[in-house]
Design brief:
single chain, mainly alpha, 8 helices, about 270 residues
């Protein structure tokens, strides 16, 4: 069922985004060794723009996690009330990241890179276009025009496709650098004061991967519909117990991986 927009829930979502942005900003500025006073090879907003990307993607991914959390843990139903606003705020942050990359980072992203022969650019455009479309149909008038069932289908699959497009935009662009970091570490440069610290892209991508694994497990092993049809499992205690167990085990595995990544840097 569609939830009417709430100013209070938007304020909460914006505060969540601001808190995450501050955390990302502090982490990235320490890793890079600068915030706005970038070296000559980087743009002034390069670090803040990276923080925007991390926050936006993390918030969009989290909206997919709200369902499992509220299904398996009592007392977390309040997340359902702000899920829509979290998603919209996250979408606007991702769009802002795209705008800053296109208009304000000529050193890192010259205009020559923005063309439809560049697959990373294409996937980025697709992701942003999907987010704009999902926002455009989020209003009550559009829901009445489309119909509740079709609207819900578009929302569910539109966000899935947007996250897929984001992954296709980020992973191919970053993969070789991630592999090199895992195998060799890195060296100090004017743009990178602490190269052994994991990049924000690695940290966020690990979270996104966990969210995807949780939802795929639900679709394949609990719903057995691959997400094509919704199903209520709250009344089935065995399915809920299985889902909760998988959620917790996979969560702690993710935390362990985070610890390994961070201690790898601290131990060097």
């Amino acid at each position: 069922m569609h939830k009417p927009s709430s100013t209070r829930d938007y304020v909460i979502s914006i505060l969540v985004a601001a808190g995450l942005f501050t955390i990302f900003l502090v982490y990235l500025s320490f890793r890079r060794g600068y915030l706005f006073d970038a070296p000559s090879t980087a743009d002034m907003l390069y670090v803040p723009n990276k923080a925007l990307a991390g926050v936006g993607v993390a918030m969009l991914a989290f909206t997919f996690l709200v369902g499992p959390i509220t299904r398996y843990f009592k007392g977390w139903s309040f997340l359902l009330q702000i899920r829509k606003e979290l998603g919209i705020v996250g979408a606007f942050i991702v769009i802002a990241h795209g705008a800053v990359s296109f208009f304000l980072l000529p050193k890192k992203f010259p205009q020559s890179k923005f063309n439809f022969e560049n697959e990373n650019f294409i996937w980025g455009v697709i992701g942003i276009a999907l987010l704009i479309f999902l926002f455009a149909i989020s209003f009550q008038k559009m829901i009445k025009c489309i119909g509740a069932a079709k609207w819900w289908f578009l929302q569910r699959w539109g966000l899935r496709l947007a996250i897929f497009a984001t992954a296709m935009h980020v992973v191919p662009m970053k993969w070789s650098g991630w592999v090199k970091w895992f195998n060799e570490g890195g060296k100090v440069t004017p743009e990178l004061a602490h190269p052994l610290m994991p990049g924000a892209g690695i940290l966020v991508s690990l979270f996104v991967a966990w969210v995807i694994i949780v939802r795929l497990y639900e679709s394949a092993c609990l719903y057995r519909s691959l997400g094509l049809a919704s199903k209520e499992i709250a009344s089935d205690k065995k399915l809920v117990a299985r889902g909760r167990q998988f959620f917790l085990v996979s969560f702690w595995i993710m935390i362990l991986i985070y610890v390994i990544l961070i201690t790898r840097w601290m131990g060097q």
